[in-house]
Design brief:
The protein is an alpha+beta fold. Helix content is about 20%, strand content about 30%. A hairpin with a 2-residue loop joins strand 3 and strand 4.
């Protein structure tokens, strides 16, 4: 398996460019990683059948959480690190303090949290380190659940952040998405020959899904500096019956 170097190896002799020495290693690592992960997606498709009515209407979106649930049903144990996402990031004692967080234009208050599992040092979803938050309406109803791949994750995991979007599509069904893609701008380029900047939306039952993912680097920065991530939000469609 190709090694993904945290830093470019030393240059060998006069005229040897850093880019030429390190880029093949980076490219090989990304391509090999994609091949292994597509094998995992095949298993995901078996375990979570795409587009089933059950997956779209009755199953939870994340552990015990589902859009439309009241604040009174939020779990009392198993979670920690409560804080407002907007404003100064004020620390909270628990879900009940959500009203202390600033509201967005739609009146939703976003509360960050993480898993409080014994032996786990990272909050993960589908094996990917994640930053999680709930968007709560004024009465405490869960209006949205947001999952963002963690940009501070270890390099080995961070480079796979953009692929979490494929797992989302496997979970909620491959068809029915309305997607738009952008091309590199300015000094942007792909990583290992792959550039991704994609925005997708889909409505299924009581859920409106918003998915953004990207993979790129800037030519004027070190090769080890790149962006690879996914942001996924499940919103409650208020006009649909619960």
């Amino acid at each position: 398996m190709a090694r993904f170097h945290p830093r470019p190896p030393p240059l060998a002799g006069k005229g040897g460019g850093e880019r030429g020495r390190w880029l093949p290693t980076l490219t090989h690592s990304f391509r090999a990683g994609r091949a292994r992960l597509w094998a995992v997606f095949a298993c995901v498709s078996v375990l979570l059948p795409a587009g089933t009515a059950r997956a779209q209407t009755t199953e939870n979106d994340l552990r015990e959480f589902t859009v439309g649930m009241p604040a009174s049903a939020l779990p009392a144990h198993g979670y920690t690190g409560f804080a407002c996402v907007a404003g100064s990031g004020e620390a909270l004692r628990g879900w009940a303090d959500y009203a202390k967080c600033p509201a967005d234009a739609a009146g939703r208050r976003e509360v960050a949290f993480r898993y409080d599992d014994d032996g786990e040092h990272e909050t993960k979803v589908a094996g990917q380190p994640m930053r999680l938050s709930l968007l709560l309406e004024g009465d405490g109803t869960v209006n949205g659940i947001r999952m963002r791949t963690d940009p501070a994750a270890r390099l080995f995991l961070r480079k796979r952040g953009y692929i979490f979007g494929e797992q989302v599509k496997a979970r909620y069904g491959e068809t029915g998405w309305t997607c738009s893609e952008e091309q590199p701008s300015g000094n942007e380029e792909g990583v290992g020959g792959v550039f991704v900047r994609e925005h997708c939306e889909k409505t299924v039952g009581i859920r409106h899904l918003v998915l953004d993912r990207e993979l790129f680097r800037r030519r004027d920065e070190p090769l080890s500096n790149f962006t690879s991530g996914t942001s996924f939000t499940v919103y409650r469609v208020a006009t649909k019956p619960l």
